[in-house]
Amino acid sequence: MDFMYKMTHELQTPVSSITLAANMLENPSVSGTPERLAKYVRIVKEESNRMQWHIDNVLHIAKAENRTLLLKPEKTAVDSLVSNLLSRYDGRISSDLKASEASVTVDRQHFSNVLFNLIDNALKYTPVNPQIWVCTQQVADKVVVSVRDNGIGIPQHEQKKIFNNFYRIQNNSANVKGFGLGLSYVQQIAQAHHWNLELESQEGEGSDFRIVLPVSSSA
């Protein structure tokens, strides 16, 4: 019931925004003004994507738990994939990509969604002067992809719990909305790919989530 309440509440915001934008698009003063028309069309697209993101997370977790999640692994240049993903953030996310020679075998959609979830969390839990870094490096036969922030951090006793379905850190000072599925999804995808998922965090000093992937063979 708690999950249903949170899910309904979370979806209500984009639904309300889409309804408002749709009503405005019916207004002749808006439809006749290209700038205002473009604004409300953009709102509809962004909020629709937001709803789809939540729905996809729930479906992917359910499939992973039922062992029906289908992966489509393909050899991918990791720095290129990460760079393309970060271009959507209009410079808000800094990067330090040092794995330009490395390729990994991943499901591109799920790998991208994992990074989206980690970056979204970093932004949510860094309420003041956010500095978010996405870094890559090759260490021997592994590639490490890191998402680091300067946010509120995670208490030591909470760090194992945050990957559980629906778990939210109690009394977090950022007062972040959500229903505790993002990191559960990250863990499910990491396990499905046999990646190592690491976390280093200090309360009040930020967090560093690291994904450790094997380098694909050159063959």
TrEMBL record:
Key word Transmembrane helix present: no
CDD domains in the cross-refs: HATPase, HisKA
Domain Histidine kinase: residue ranges: 6-217
UniProt keyword Phosphoprotein present: yes
Reactions that this protein is recorded to catalyse: ATP + protein L-histidine = ADP + protein N-phospho-L-histidine
Domain of life: Bacteria
BP terms from Gene Ontology: cellular response to phosphate starvation
Entry keyword set: Kinase, Phosphoprotein, Transferase, Two-component regulatory system
EC number: 2.7.13.3
GO MF annotation terms: phosphoprotein phosphatase activity; phosphorelay sensor kinase activity
GO cellular component entries: plasma membrane
PANTHER family for the chain: PHOSPHATE REGULON SENSOR PROTEIN PHOR (PTHR45453)
This protein's name: histidine kinase
Lineage: Bacteria, Pseudomonadati, Bacteroidota, Cytophagia, Cytophagales
